[in-house]
Amino acid sequence: MVNTLAPKTAEPAGPAAHGTRTRAPGPGRRDRARRRQPLLAYLFLAPALLFFAVFLVLPLGFALLLSMSRWTGFDLGDIDPVGLDNFAGLFADGSAFLVPVLTNTLLFALGTVALALAGSVLVATCIDKLRFQGLWRTLYFLPIVTTVVAVGNVWKYMYEPGGLVNGVLNALGLDSVAFLQNPDTALPAVVVVQAWASVGSAILILTAGLKSVPESYYEAAALDGAGPATVFFRITLPLLRPSLLFVCVTQFLTGLQSFALIIVMTKGGPGDATDVAALEMYRRAFSYGDWGTASAAAFVLFLVVLAVTLAQLWIFRRTGEDV
Known about the structure:
Elements: H1 27-67, E1 69-70, E2 80-81, H2 85-90, H3 97-127, H4 133-145, H5 148-158, H6 164-171, H7 183-211, H8 215-223, H9 228-239, H10 241-256, H11 260-265, H12 277-287, H13 291-318
Antiparallel strand pairs: 1-2
């Protein structure tokens, strides 16, 4: 009697049924596949590397060449190497690049950072205690998405003798001030506009930092009877330090490279009261045709920005902050 319930032996299938065995890839095949991986990676990176080379490496090399040459900006055959004469001319006696150009640049950046940091901390702290926080953050962020030309022209008319700012001063019993026509007030007036325009981005960063502060700290301070000033200076500000440092770095670098707002509002005047490094480079190249000196000034500004950045990074590490 045949046992139909007994398990049937599976018949071999595939290459094994014909007496052959599957083989794992040999060392040579694995080595070839491993060598192809970097090639594939570079093929995928090629568009980004090409963009980087065309729009950064080549212009940087050309600017370095021009910084040690004399060129009027028309014929490449007229490039005349002069060594470090362009750099020496920037700091020679009688040159206005160090004073007032670089001095105005540093003062502009420092003033912008101070006002923007103080204003953003105050506004962010107030927004954190209000309803409809998203609405308030959006309203304060609007100057960021507005073109610099529009912002500069609006504030330029507000600073006029018959403008809104002088109208408020007159209503308070004060005399009108020629903000943009007076060398003593022109730079501070533009600093106020730059700080106002950059407060929005700082508020977004600081409100995010405030949200990360544990609520239990404020509850403990309330139980101990701490007042609002004590809570702000002993809890909020210390825990907000990483966000404050980030805002400080970004605002300072933006201030050092500022150009568009100044050329819209004052064009560097009156005199050279608001002349900054970026505007001086623009004038040297496009107004006077001195591309060599303009390129040398660009590298000097680059070194200033690099030095400020490294100094800030060093300060951050000394205070125990990760950057």
